Amino acid sequence: MGRNVAIVGTGHSKFGNRYDVNIPELAWEAIKQALDEAGVDQKDIDFASFSNVGGWSSEPLPALVVLEYAGLTPKATYRVEAACASGSAAIKAAHDAVASGQADIAIAIGVEKMNESPTPTVIEFIGRAGNYFWEFQNFGLTFPGYYALYATAYMDKYGATEEDLCRVAVKNHYYASLNPKAQFTKPITMEMCMNSRYIAWPLKLFDCSPITDGAAAVILASEEVAKKLTDSPVWIESIGVASGTSNLSKRQGFLSLEAAVEAANMAYKKAGLNREEIVKHIDVAEVHDCFTIAEILAYEDLGFAKRGEGYKLLREEQTHKDGLIPVNLSGGLKAKGHPLGATGISMAVDLTRQLQGRVEKGRQATIVNGRALAHNIGGTGHYAYVTLYNLSKPRTR
Amino acid sequence: MGRNVAIVGTGHSKFGNRYDVNIPELAWEAIKQALDEAGVDQKDIDFASFSNVGGWSSEPLPALVVLEYAGLTPKATYRVEAACASGSAAIKAAHDAVASGQADIAIAIGVEKMNESPTPTVIEFIGRAGNYFWEFQNFGLTFPGYYALYATAYMDKYGATEEDLCRVAVKNHYYASLNPKAQFTKPITMEMCMNSRYIAWPLKLFDCSPITDGAAAVILASEEVAKKLTDSPVWIESIGVASGTSNLSKRQGFLSLEAAVEAANMAYKKAGLNREEIVKHIDVAEVHDCFTIAEILAYEDLGFAKRGEGYKLLREEQTHKDGLIPVNLSGGLKAKGHPLGATGISMAVDLTRQLQGRVEKGRQATIVNGRALAHNIGGTGHYAYVTLYNLSKPRTR
Fold first, then answer.
1. Which of A292, A363, B291, B329 lies at a CB distance of 3.0 to 4.6 Å from B363, suitable for a disulfide?
2. In this structure, which topology does domain A5-119+211-229 adopt according to CATH?
3. What number is the ipTM of this complex?
């Protein structure tokens, strides 16, 4: 139906406290790298989707400011926002532009400077991304509190422990220590995690992703153009997208993000994959571990584990590099960092490089199927994007 | 290349001071009408693009909140922002989703409540949408000031007068008085306009568009689906998009918005139209008259008039209903109102109804070619979208 679309270039800035650069400079680090990898020039780009949540920023509408700094004017652009899933939404926007024939080459750019937040603080702002009127304003819930509700319900129902949550943190900090672009560069121990202070019981400091500055970019091209640019394109095989209620009091329960299940099933269906045996088809995944409990929920929402058994994958190290289904070998949001608008694009960058076998040795997955999965959530399941990347060209579209 | 895409339903709220409703309620007025016109149900929609600038709003990430209120969860969505051109950008996003085969039916929703602005004021916020760091912060320029630079340069070079600017206001207020959805419902006289107080010389109160609350929505469908839903689809014939510098000090001059020329030429080229005789091909246009001078610049940027002769069209009433090329028969941003995120979609709604011959009699254009044009600008030409709508199915895509 639409045209095939491939990733032909990727770029990724160092994540962390980036007081050394402003927003356009930070974005440029990723854009420059992506242009160089793709071997294209700014003039070759037809369309740029720009992912940024901002809101706390003094530059409230930064899309054009970044585009201009990067030499991409007079090209077409708009900003895309779907809370913490904005990056994946921007990839969908760029994908659709290429697949529909509106563009031959498009770039998706994500950037966020969260450490420059004035009043209202970034924590308050993110809290408003929940259900503002009812839950944020009346009950003062912010995101650690939202996810603590999920963690509590999950532990109560299935017998998972605080140690199980910390297993996610220890794993992801370990892989971050091997990723030079990550915010946190040192491994942590189980003891450090378990002894860290509570933020919202049962979530402790090391259960939470940090406040991060960072940028990432991917260049997408139509099949015809991709073949000219590279011998190792990574194809966008399918995109699943869904939304869910913003109101936690309206949810069926706190054991699953319903939108994530919906998005996963849509992505699997489009790719002709059977959910029941999905781990057999995927070599490596990046999932939205904004809090450690979120990674465990993701295992189950994606079908990597049965309901109530996600935490057992961790006990058996099945989501480590050499396990059944390696997850967050980049360090994840948890330890690579979570610069909101850049996060989904960072997932695409790392998975592209994983499929092409060119990440650091200690965190390189074994590529058998040639397929990778990105799971990117906005809010507490308000928005869910599941994207499948493949070394082989999709058979049908 | 991509699939054909048609508008199959339109919705438009009353524009004005809408203290009577909150954002989701305001959006629903437009969404409900669009669903009813298209004869579809929420469950039939595959994708929703949501246009909103917000920034001053207590609900900073409203896409999901509106989607949920409108019964559109768990459908796919993201927010689109391109400053005051956000509405047209959302139409492009929905168009690309349908044209690429990612969706069969999509809705583009635009909503803005500008009158609820707390601190920073909406004027300050919009000012930041210019070049924040240099021009807003250092020189205190806000939008009336930006466009006053253009007005001054234009009057100086071509001999246009303040009366010519007021001719735009008088025309657009007249047509707004015939449009029950418009913010301003009474015609004004040349004397009223000329005697109104200066905001930024030579722009007076009646040269400026107002602060507006409002919503608009269009439902788009693939050719196959559109044929089942309606006998009178309006096709999206082509979309031209470009961007330009945010920094006025870097512009070549103040007599044209370069991005608008670029976008127009792209739209004309895709539709196979000759710019030199463009007025022969278009029955009616909506242009971005955020200030009266902007409408005159648009005439020239779009090729409706030669350089320096745009204001003469007004003197000869050639952009009135029965003139050579009727412009802003809805009342335009100037008098229908300018709720930022809704504006581009409001243009699409009114042009669809114009082409279908169903607007109020006194402002109904004569439809000969079956083609309409929307010109939507973000910032002072930072973003430019020119979209052609056609009663006939495009020959080639």
1. B329
2. Peroxisomal Thiolase; Chain A, domain 1 (3.40.47)
3. 0.95
